[in-house]
Amino acid sequence: MKKKILVAGGTGYIGSHTTVELQNAGYEVVIIDDLSNSNIEVLDGIERITGVRPAFVKLDLKDKEGTRKALEAHPGIEGVILFAASKAVGESVQQPLKYYRNNITTLINILELMPEFGMKGIVFSSSCTVYGQPDPEFLPVTESAPIKPAMSPYGNTKQINEEIIQDTIHAGAPFKSIILRYFNPIGAHPTAEIGELPNGVPQNLIPYLTQTAIGIRKELSVFGDDYNTPDGSCIRDYINVVDLAKAHVIAMDRMLENRSDEKVEIFNLGTGNGVSVLELINTFEKATGVKVPHKIVGRREGDIEKVWANPEKANKVLGWKAVETLEDTLRSAWNWQVKLRERGIQ
After folding, report:
1. Which residues of the chain fall below pLDDT 70?
2. What's the pLDDT at 346?
3. Where is the NAD-dependent epimerase/dehydratase domain (predicted)?
């Protein structure tokens, strides 16, 4: 019988791609999402790719009683993948209480309900922001790098949530957790049926870049060219969203099949390559043949200068590896933007 998984925030960017990979791997998926930063039409894209439409409940997971009723209506869920969260660094600096309320209350509700419904494991969507700005000797970043004071409320919620999970399990909660620290997910499904589609003005680099390239936005702002990097712009580790999604399936398999004695495991998910913002723009232009109007502006509060992953632990222990090239990933993002235009969106 197919195992049933709850994907909290499953119509969002990473959640939708993970739902596709879970269904392709034979899992049955129930999505709970409040659609605050996603669109119900994502379900159509998932169905077109996989041939299966996941069960869907529109619900704000801060509503604990509503969440309990949703779980009662979908019995037999064995594990949960928690994506549901506000996720923009810049916005979190401006609206910290929104981030603390959304990101922390949601996790606490899920953790309290898991034993009630016999769930065996939670995969938590964390972030490389927990490392802050790593000291040079800790680049590339391994899982044992020090956790630094967060540079934004968003980053702080990820640190706090990791601590909440570890404390809860240490206290004897009857489930396991795998915490996945993402670096920078970009790109879209190769079918161009799903991709990154934020509501309103994009907070993330790639959708803003592709919207600029297609003429929706006037120009892309590069926040700072005076950092201590080869070209002065920030360096990140950009990972293909489908590669990232596949890691969640492996993590869920690992917990449900009890492949590890550890109650909490942490893995960095990245490519191991640092790419600057200006390099990324140049690579996009070469890969697609489309120019991106851009300008240099001042630094943005909360931004980290440079960070990229050492993904060896995930490579060895999970047997997972990022395989898509940056060029192919950027082409997939552009193809998705073109598809949106053809569908009359934006």
Report:
1. 1, 346
2. 64
3. 5-270
Q: DSSP H helical segments within 232-289, as ranges? A: 241-256, 277-288
* Tokens 């680049």 found at: 139
What values do phi and psi take at 223, rounded to 5?
Answer: -85, 90
Distance CA 248, CA 19 (A): 10
Q: Which CATH class is domain 4-183+240-270+308-322?
A: alpha beta
pLDDT tens string 47-79: 999 999 999 999 999 999 999 999 999 999 999
Give the three-class secondary structure for 66: helix
The residues annotated with a catalytic role in the active site are 154
Copy the structure tokens of residue 223.
Answer: 């926040």
Place of tokens 């909290």: 8
- Residue-level pLDDT at 89: 83
Which amino acid would we find at residue 316?
K
Q: If 0-12 CB within 10 Å is exposed, 13-18 middle and 19+ buried, where does residue 259 land?
A: exposed
Domains of the chain, by residue range, sit at 4-183+240-270+308-322
